[in-house]
Amino acid sequence: MSDTAKTTPATDLALVAVFAALIAAFSLTPAIPxxxxxxxxxxxxxxxxxxxxxxxxxxxxxxxxxxxxxFAGLPVFAGGAAGLAVLGKPSVGYLLAFPLGAAxxxxxxxLSSSWRGARQYLGFFLAGLGASIVIHAAGILGLMLVAKMxxxxxxLIDLAFWPGxxxxxxxxxxxxxxxxxxxxxxxxxxxxxxx
Length: 195
Known about the structure:
There is one protein chain. By secondary structure, this protein is mainly α. It is built from seven helices and two strands, in the order βαααααααβ. Helix 2 (about 45-55) packs antiparallel against helix 3, helix 2 (about 45-55) packs parallel to helix 4 and helix 4 (about 90-110) packs antiparallel against helix 5 (about 115-145).
């Protein structure tokens, strides 16, 4: 099987839009507030899924579209927040890292996409973990800059997210394995269809 797959712009656009909507839906699930002003939500599950399922570029674009819609004023961020005011919230680092996190998950998932069974599951879990590390690093930086915290305090707040995010990565890997079993070409390198 070739490591490239033909695609159409319409298919790519539809997949990007569907995953942007999925991220928005997961963001609107009830949030669990914690100290530091950053709630626990299912956003990271959807962001990592976008990368694991769509690959690096479409995953990146799906999360970028999600951010653009939220910054434009639609209440798709955690707690129904919207607009540019979220850039002044302590959660801004996590939020702005979503596209890069999805791209990292997609890139690492592509490396293990030809594996099967438990190896593929482990590869996808590690891809999600890599994305989480990127998102959490940016989140700590955001806490330090916006909430004026020292590194130690920001790191301790961030630790509260790790148990839930590890569980989310187990779930994301299982879903991605199932999706790629049904649609094995999704992670293939994209080659635009010729007219």
